[in-house]
Structures are given as C-alpha cells and as structure tokens.
Amino acid sequence: MIATTEKPARRGRGARKTARQARDFTMLPALKRKLPLTEPMDAEQIERLDAASMHILENVGVVFRDPIALDDWRRMGARVMDETVFLDRGLVRELIKTIPETFTYHARNPQNNLPFGRDHAIFVPMTGAPFLRDLDDVRRNPTLEDLANFHKLAHMLPALHSSAHHIVEPYDHPISQRHLRITYSSMKHSDKTFMGMTTSPRNAEDVLDMCAILFGADYLEDHPVVTGNCNGNSPLVWDETMLGAMRAFCRRNQPVLCSPFVLGGANTPASVAPAVAQLNAEALSALAYTQVIRKGAPAIYGHYLSTVSMKSGAPMAGTPEIGLMNMMIGQMARYYGVPWRSSANLGGAKTFDAQAGYESASTLMALQMAGTNYMWHAAGWNEAGMHCSMAKFVVDAEQCAMAYRMAEGVRWDDFDEAVAAVADIGPGGHYLGHPHTLENFQRAFFMPDLFDNNSIEQWQTEGGLDVNERALAYTRDLLNAYEEPKLEAGVDEALRDYIARREREIPAADALNQEY
Amino acid sequence: MIATTEKPARRGRGARKTARQARDFTMLPALKRKLPLTEPMDAEQIERLDAASMHILENVGVVFRDPIALDDWRRMGARVMDETVFLDRGLVRELIKTIPETFTYHARNPQNNLPFGRDHAIFVPMTGAPFLRDLDDVRRNPTLEDLANFHKLAHMLPALHSSAHHIVEPYDHPISQRHLRITYSSMKHSDKTFMGMTTSPRNAEDVLDMCAILFGADYLEDHPVVTGNCNGNSPLVWDETMLGAMRAFCRRNQPVLCSPFVLGGANTPASVAPAVAQLNAEALSALAYTQVIRKGAPAIYGHYLSTVSMKSGAPMAGTPEIGLMNMMIGQMARYYGVPWRSSANLGGAKTFDAQAGYESASTLMALQMAGTNYMWHAAGWNEAGMHCSMAKFVVDAEQCAMAYRMAEGVRWDDFDEAVAAVADIGPGGHYLGHPHTLENFQRAFFMPDLFDNNSIEQWQTEGGLDVNERALAYTRDLLNAYEEPKLEAGVDEALRDYIARREREIPAADALNQEY
C-alpha cells in the first residue's frame, strides 16, 4: 500500500527552510493537566489495596537476585531468607517518603527543561523494538541510521518531550558497544531530555559518564538529566542486572523507573484489583530500594502492563482492564506521593491498520484520564513492541498533541465575547466571517495534519492514500526538514573520545554472550 | 486488501447451529455505569453556561419555522416575533421539569427491555449512510437487502441494544415509501428496540401506526418502544418537518431526541464553552417544546456534534474539543435532569484504516467518560457518516463491549481470594494453573475476537490479514449464523397489510419531490 518507494531526497537548504517554515517544531511545554482525573477507587479501597500490597511485602516477600541488594536490606534491618526479602510496611513507608514528588528534567537546551510530577505529564517515544517498519513499510532489523532517524523525528515532533534511547535496536553495531552509540545518537540528534541504557551496571555507568561529559559531573548531582528504566520480573523478583543499573543511576542522583513487567493473568492473579495489589507491592519494593541506595534520589513508580489472552497466552493492548488498572495505579502513586510512569499508544497489530488505531487511542485516553506523569512508549509502538513503525510514530505524536489539548481542559477567557457573537449572528446565520472566529480559529479546534477529513472526491484526487501512506510521506518531509541542534564542538569531541576509548576496552566479539 | 470475494454461502441448519454455539449472541443488559464521570466544569461554570444559554433564549430567540409551533408558543405566553420565539428562562425551566429522568424501553422480546437514563447507557448503531462498504469492501449505494443485513448484525452483536432504523439508505425502493420498508426491516430482523423515521410528520405517523400494530395502541401510551430523532439547524432554528415529526412522537408518548446539528466553528462560535452554550440553548428550546406538545412525554437531550477544520471547512471526528464538549454537555443534561444522547465511534476516514480506529476509539472513550445515556452511531460510521462499513460495524460493536466492561468499573468480590493466590504462587512463579485463574480467566480480562494479538509468524500462517479483512470474514460468519426472531404470524400479516395499503396510497413517483 505504498504510494512511492523513493528514498528521502537530498534537498538544499532552501527546501529545508520552506518545509520548516510550514510547521512549528517548537516543543510543547510539559503538560500541566487541568481535566479531572478518573479515580475508580474510594479511600477505603485504596487502603484495602495498600494493605494487601504491604501484606504481600511482609509475608510473601520479594526476591532480590543480587548479593549487594541483599546485604543492603540486611543492613536496613529487613528479614532476609536466601534471596527473599521480607519488607515491613513501616520500613517501606519510611523509605519511600524521601522520593521527590516533583523535580525538573534538565535538557541541554534549557528551553526544553520539563517540570515533572503531580499535574505535569510528558510524552516519551517507544523503545526497545527489535524491528522497524521503515519508510517503505518494510519490516526489518534496524540500523544506527534508522535509530538516528527516530531521534530526529522525536526532536521535531512538538508533543514528544524526549528522544528516549534505543527506540529501535541498531543491529549493525556490536551489542556489547551498542549502548555507547545509542546514547550518543540521543544526545546528538536532539536537545530534548533522553533515556539511559540499563542493559548492565557497567553500561549504565558508561551512559552516566557520557551525561557527565555533556552536562558536567557536578551538574548531575543536583539536576535530573536522564532516565533509566529497571524492569522487575513479576511476580516479585528483581534481578542483578537491573538492580546494578539502578544503583548506578541512584548514586548519581538520576531518576529511575521502577517497572514491574506485568502480563496480567500469567504473572499476576487473573483479576484487576488483585493484579494491581501485586504490581503495587513490586513497585514499592524497588522504590524503597532506591532510597536505600541514596536517600532523596528521584525515582518513578513504573510498570509495563498488559493483560494476557487466556485463549492464546498473547499479551493484549487496548483492553478495558488495562485502562482500569492504570487508573488504579495512578491513585496508588498519588497516595504514596510518587510520580508515575505508564505506557501509552500500545498496539498489538502487525500492520498499521485500524486495530492499531483503536488499541493506541484506547490506551492513550485511559492514561490521560488516569493522570500518568511519564507517558512512555507514546509513539511508534506496534506488534506488542516487536516493531516501531515510522508511520505510526508521527501519527501517535499527533495523538499525543491531541491528548495534551484535551487534558488542558476548557478555557473560559473568551466566553462572554463569544456568547455575544451568538447575538451578532442570530438564528440561521454562520460564524465563519465573524471577528471572534477570525481571531480564534487557529486555536479553537485541533486540526490534525495526519487525519484526512476531506470529501471522498477530494481524497481520491489527492491519490486515495490511507493514513499509513500519508504518514510515511509526512515522515519523509519531516526528515528532509531536519536541522541538527549541534553539540558544542568540545563536548562532541569529548563524547567521541569517550566512545572510542570504551570501544577499545569492550571486546566486540563478546556481543552474543553479553546479557541483554 | 480483500482475502476472498466469495459471497456468504448458503449453509444448512447444522452449520448455522455450530456457528451459533461458538458465540453467545445474548444481548448485554443496558449498561449500568460505575466508573466516575469526567466533569470538566465546576458548579459555578455550569451556572455560567446555563445563564448564557438562558440569555440566548430570552434575547436572541429561536426560530421555529412552523405555524403550529408558533401558535403553541403564543398560547404558552412566549413572545413571538415573525418566526422567532423568545423563551423566558422561568418558562423553560418549568416545562423541562416534566421530562422523565428515567424510563424503560420496551422491546418485542421483553428480555431485551432496557432501563434508560441516569447511570444507564445503551449502544445504538449508526444510521443514515447513503453508501456502504460491503462484504467485498466495495463502496456503493445500499439496498434493502444490505439494510436487512445490518439489522441482522445489530440483532446478533451483544453490545448493541437497538436495531436502529435506516442504518443505510435502501436506494432500491422509492424514497416516498422507504420509511415503511425500513421500519418493517427493523421490526422483523431483530427483537431489540429500534428507531423510527422522522423524515416527515406523515412518515412518523406511519412508523407509529406500525408500532401500534406490533405492540398495541394502548400499550404505546405507557411504554416507550421506539425513538425518533429531530435535528435542529444550528444556530437556533427548528424546521417544520422535524417539529411535525416531533409532535407525532410526543403525542403517542414515544421518546424523541432533540438534536441540534452542530459543526463547531461554522454554525457556532469558534470556542468550546461558547459553542456548548449555544447548543444547550438549542436543545433546551426543543426539549421545552416536547412538553408543550405533551406534558411528561419522554424526551432526550441530543445533538450531533463535530468540529470544523478551519483549513478545509470539513467536519472532523476524534478531536479533543469534541471530547471536552461532550463532557460538558453531559454535565448540563444531568443539571437539568434529562437523559442525553451523543455519537460514539465516529470516523472521517475514507477506508477502515488506522485513522478510523484512532478517531472512533477517542470519541467512544470520551463519551464513556462523559456518561452518555444514548450512544448513537456506535457501529459502522466512517467517512463522516457518508458510508457504513460492514467491517467497522462488527469491530465497533466489540469496542462497545469493551467500553461497557470498562464503565462497569472494578470488581472486588474475589479480592481476598486472589491476593491469597499471590502467597500460593510466590516470587518467580506463574498463575496459569492456579485454581483462582482457572475459575476466573473467562471473565477476568476481555479477549477481543477481532484484534489479533498473536506473533507475526502465527499471523502470517493465518494469512496475514489486517483487521478489515478479518472483520469482513467475521461478518460473513455472523450472517450465516443468523436466525430470525420470528414475528407472530398475525402481527406480521397486519404489518404487511398496512405497508401494502400505504404503498397504494403513497405515489412512488413522488419519490424525488418529497422532502427528505
């Protein structure tokens, strides 16, 4: 269904300038939401859920497959049996108290700094896809160039607040050294905030060293600049790789997402509220551990959350229970006073078809009503995360802009003036030429670039393209209009030197043996 | 992208029975929602909006292009100048007080009766499409047979609560007589509730006469059995055709939707809150008139609501402002104590592509959060209502089932039992074989029939079909499994006699001259 297979043309500065002028690439500020939240639990149900989670932490315990963490917990007075840590609710509550409820993300372009937590929300692209659907809609393994293209798109799309990290896995570089190139690509192609690889403790240290080069080592001490993600293994297990990476981030005072990886019904009970009770226990155990590592370190209540089809065992997206669980998790995170992350715009479809649209919009709308602070996987995710679609990436980003607009709520500043216009126009008239309309039409109603609302005749005249085809053409245009926000020459050189040194030190041949 | 072009095969009773046994076609009861509503306005803003609407009714006035209505209003003491009626807020409030906040829809199968209003919601298919996308994904003018197929699907799909009326326009029958065949098709192919044509006052009388044959004339007096829709011409105009049809429905005590037809920015001010203020005034003027016609007659606060692209003038679907306006309208309807209707699952796409999915899901989710009682256009709507898609019809119906599930909220009945399962399984285990899972997996997490969540390999093995292709195959299967809920022979004969008589009386040749 591809209209054209030509590659993005190399165009001159003039053409790029024209394309740039046609669109505003300025990043939207961090969303400050005003729409009321959807809170399905009353105070008693929140306390019931909290009590169940605390009961699990105290009596079932959490496995930390990591000698350092076990020592840390013993030192904190927790009961440890083999690898299982039993966490007293008093200790957990005491520890999570020092997690900052709000902080500011600092980007290398200070105009892209982001207040974070409470009513603020940010949209972050998907990461971790082993495949992409490329500009020709071909599903294949990605390269560093593909990754760079996604970082460029994340840089340009106004509702995306981060360039993330390995949006797609660059298979053309040895896995053992990949984190260095991924980090450099995030830093180089965008001046928004980004994410840091947590594929091993040492890799995390490399990322943080590169952040220290970009921002200054002292600066990191007081300024969150990067986000690491640590996945748990539900039910109730944290492993050494993730905990080691967590320690690296916490020690440098950089935010970590504490993310149980939940496939509802497979690694949780097959029921909404009990699944959240388990997930909540898991998140709390990691959040508490961040404060054992460093009191006051920024940490984010996270999770990856899917429900499993009991027919096939496959994870599903866009189902009603995912929405409900997100709404409940939001309530728990606010109960504990901790910012939280969820996953937006998820899809399980194999192509960018209507299924992908329904799933993504259902997930995004539920997250927005739930009040998620860190809206991860907000662009490109399809096929249960197995591929990132270039077409879906730009459409999702526009959906984020629409969700943003909705969450801002209703403005009343022109109410009296506009109601007066009703008298001007009177019954049977129309408003298109009225001064209030002329003054307000640009901001009044969102006009999507990627949705076609023309008549079928107009649409046919323009080639009869579906949204996948239109989005691919749009993506080509964007990439042609890209302008690099140049790194300072000295910083760029220092980053390249660091990468060169580390690549000499890390054997590329170990690629396949390294845990990933 | 069609996998097969073969027509639905004629199959024997055995095959139909097998297909039926595989799926449960039992209608879901009217949804009783438990999820909290999203209410963007505080009490002061609701009163500000109410005051603005009342100011419009008192000072700008509403045009009733209908001598009978103008006489009625004069009789009620309203100031009438030419065709403009100025409605005092006291009179409006007094009149709308007698609109029932709740009532029960009665279907010819009493098991399909529907409590309606307040927390109850029902899903009703789209209507009025001049084209369909058929089982071969061909866009063409519909026939009575196509309409019958949609009525059959509406009958079978559990989350649809009504067979509606002219889901598609049957072009193979003279327009002047079409309302008779449409009504008969709704009544014959489904035993759920349905809608009644309002294309002229006389057509409405025909529909109501047919309802009297189906249910008994006395029965109608105390039992809502059918719904009529009366569109307004925004801004602030009601015409003779609609008002005449409204009188027919109200006199027989049958519910009417009072639906301003709003293209935000074109026939309202270009701003969210002022557009709702105007729409609210329009709806109130018609709601008040229903009570002039007959005190206590059931009436529903309605509207068709789109925003207009200020680039092209085209109506848009799935935009954030439509969501916000719906949430506000819900608050106003509840403020007045009147049930309300909105439009779900709208799409502006020309094919059943990802755009259609995003738009539909965004609209549906917003409506669900807004607490809409009568979710019209909930299946099939695409291309801004210009076509009804057979594929989208069944996918939308499944989306309604998912929205239904979400709106039911969280159940806690198995909470303690399932939390106990966490201790049984312990860290690192899995739940698939646990007794709680085995007992609960069927109801725990929604498993869509029409979304594919399998691996890409499995999906390819099964033909690599997108959701449009899968939905068309699914629709063929459904139609093959259809069993007609037979009308009682005497009633059927009386209906046919009525149609035959009226078709002798109504000249088919007038077809093109009749207002429609």
Automatic annotation (TrEMBL), chains A, B:
Gene Ontology BP, a term: methylation
GO MF terms, alphabetically ordered: methyltransferase activity
Family recorded in the similarity comment: Belongs to the trimethylamine methyltransferase family.
Keywords in alphabetical order: Methyltransferase, Transferase
Name the UniProt record assigns to this protein: Methyltransferase
InterPro entries: MttB-like_sf, MTTB_MeTrfase
The protein's enzyme class: transferase
Any Pfam family: MTTB
Coiled-coil blocks: none
Enzyme Commission number(s) from the entry: 2.1.1.-
